[in-house]
Specification:
CATH superfamily: TolB, C-terminal domain
Low-confidence stretches: none
Helix content: 10-25%
Strand order of the largest sheet: 1-22-21-20-19
CATH topology: Neuraminidase
Number of helices: 3
Distance between the termini: 68 Å
Strand content: over 45%
Mean pLDDT: 93
Number of strands: 25
Radius of gyration: 20 Å
Length: about 350
């Protein structure tokens, strides 16, 4: 039996190991350089443009923006969906939801087109709970269609539509508060999941994920990509006929991956948080800046991929990048709670 002194030493050893592991696994010791081979075309004033999705066919973007203050919120946050026309190059934002009468703090979004009508789904966080708000978009006319809610939406983060009615949605936490949530954040507990909605009910499609965040689908290859920022991974799944997901492999990224978008060649573009502890402090209002990064991932086949850092910044230009949506040689970069979004242009 160990003596009290040895037990104390063992406890201290485990505690120091846990703290060191947390620092290393969250990127605390990484030096983030200001690097981009291109130019900043525009800095557009908008608070918390957390997610952006693009219609390459009709040359416009939808921006999900919420004026976030601190996390977790202590009062109802306000936000909206915005339309940005891209073809002319004017890049002007048009507010689509100024008359939406319910509390609306949109987070992850997705868009699906059939004929001339777009379906847009947005995760909504309110003080009364979480929901998914579904709209149709014709031209610049946005109409609210329905609200989807379930107790299984413990902490929804991002969504991808399969058609007008069906979608996948990520829960970034299993536990909403308490010790369980603490262990998810700092102990790297992998218990979050992906839900599937068949148009009537929710079911679990994938589980055992550490902080399931951004999600998107490559329909041509029948692959679903899920960001796990706490483990610096993009997780790859194959979509089954019953819409369950089968794990294929992890793509190590070395940074806190967030939302995922595709370019015309099928490459993944990911907004990232290189230092998760710094990001947490920033999100809680304890730090003024948080580093940003954008990755481009070329995924060719199982085990055959490359990861390239396209943009990085220590937070002085833009903090807490959450999404990077490509359109030609332009890159629309959004953030969790900064007061602007960027339009970048890569060098030829």
């Amino acid at each position: 039996m160990l003596s009290p002194k040895k037990l104390l030493l063992l406890f201290l050893f485990v505690l120091v190991g846990f703290v060191l592991y947390t620092f290393i696994s969250t990127g605390f010791f990484r030096t983030v350089e200001n690097r981009f081979e291109g130019e900043t075309v525009l800095e557009i004033p908008i608070k918390g443009a957390e997610d952006i999705t693009i219609s390459a066919t009709d040359s416009f973007a939808i921006v999900s923006a919420t004026a976030r203050l601190t996390f977790p919120p202590t009062e109802q946050e306000k936000g909206g969906l915005y339309y940005m026309e891209l073809k002319s190059g004017n890049l002007v934002l048009t507010h689509l939801t100024p008359n939406f009468e319910r509390p609306f703090a949109p987070h992850g979004i997705s868009m699906f087109k059939r004929d001339s009508v777009y379906t847009i789904a947005a995760i909504n966080h309110t003080l009364d709970g979480h929901s998914i708000e579904v709209f149709t978009l014709v031209g610049k006319e946005l109409t609210h269609i329905r609200t989807e809610k379930t107790t299984k939406l413990t902490s929804p983060n991002d969504i991808v539509l399969l058609d007008e009615n069906r979608f996948y949605v990520t829960n970034d936490h299993k536990y909403e508060k308490g010790f369980g949530r603490l262990m998810e954040d700092y102990g790297n507990l992998a218990v979050s999941n992906v839900l599937y909605f068949d148009g009537q009910q929710f079911s679990e499609a994938a589980e055992g994920i550490s902080f399931a965040n951004g999600i998107n689908i490559d329909n041509q290859r029948n692959l679903v990509f899920v960001a796990s920022p706490r483990r610096f991974l993009i997780k790859v799944y194959s979509k089954n006929d019953d819409n369950s997901l089968t794990f294929v492999e992890d793509i190590p990224c070395g940074t806190g991956v967030d939302n995922i978008e595709f370019d015309a060649e099928g490459n993944l573009w990911v907004g990232c948080h290189p230092n998760l502890l710094r990001f947490t402090a920033y999100a809680k209002g304890k730090k003024e800046t948080s580093p940003s990064e954008v990755l481009k991932i070329a995924y060719r086949a199982t085990g055959d991929y490359s990861v390239e850092s396209i943009y990085s910044n220590d937070g002085t230009q833009v903090s807490a990048t959450s999404v990077a949506a490509p359109f030609g040689n332009l890159l629309l970069v959004g953030t969790v709670k900064d007061d602007k979004m960027l339009v970048l242009q890569a060098s030829e």
